[in-house]
Amino acid sequence: MARYTGPVCRLCRREGMKLYLKGERCYTEKCAIEKRNFQPGQHGHARRPKIVGYGLQLREKQRAKRYFGLLERQFRNAFEKASKMKGITGESLLAMMEHRLDSTVYRLGLATSRAMARQFVRHGHVQVNGKKVNIPSFLTSQGDLIEVRERSRKNPAILAACDATASRPSPSWLEFDRENLRGRVVGTFKRDELVQIQLNEQLIVELYSK
Q: What is the DSSP string of the chain?
């Protein structure tokens, strides 16, 4: 599966905002945005140029793509699927991103970052409705039961992640039983619950619709 393997803090610095790509580190003073909030590279200290038109659309797409941990082709394919759904395309795209299995695992609090959640899924630690699913892009739907497999319930990384995220509430469309390491999808993603970063999905729709 194709994925970005370079340094992730530079992605946050390029966008000028936290994308929460390194889990707990993003909540401490060690976060790159807290220490070095300027663009990466030789000319990073130069003043950020004013962006208009196509530049705004591109930055919004890059920000969303990096936040959800997808590469260009994966994100474009998701947009194509969202554009064929009923309803507002931008909101459908965000809903697809949040209902991916890796995003659902992250939002439940079983991982401190989407990258960690993707790794847990790929390594076979997660099952959906009693069956192992190791595809991060698998789309969860209302009524699905997501849980850590029996043989993985003493995995130190999973237990540490649950402890680290204990104070973070799950979104209203998810229920989580922290003691038994299982959660259930009880609704659908709501636009106002994308709280970590600000996104204008309409700019992404305009960019891909050209």
A: -----S-SHHHHHHHTS----SGGGGGSTTSHHHH--S-SSTTTTSPPPP--THHHHHHHHHHHHHHHT--HHHHHHHHHHHHTSSS-HHHHHHHHHHHBHHHHHHHHTSSSSHHHHHHHHHTT-EEETTEE---TTPBP-TT-EEEE-GGGTT-HHHHHHHHHTTTSPPPTTEEEETTTTEEEE-S---GGG--SS---HHHHHHHHT-
The string of pLDDT tens digits covering residues 37-84 is 666 666 566 666 777 788 889 999 999 999 999 999 999 999 999 999
What pLDDT, on the 0 to 100 scale, is given for residue 23?
A: 78
Tens of pLDDT, residue by residue over 124-134, are 999 999 999 99
Residues of the chain with pLDDT under 50: none
Please give the domain boundaries of the chain with CATH numbers for all domains.
9-97+196-208 (1.10.1050.10), 98-191 (3.10.290.10)
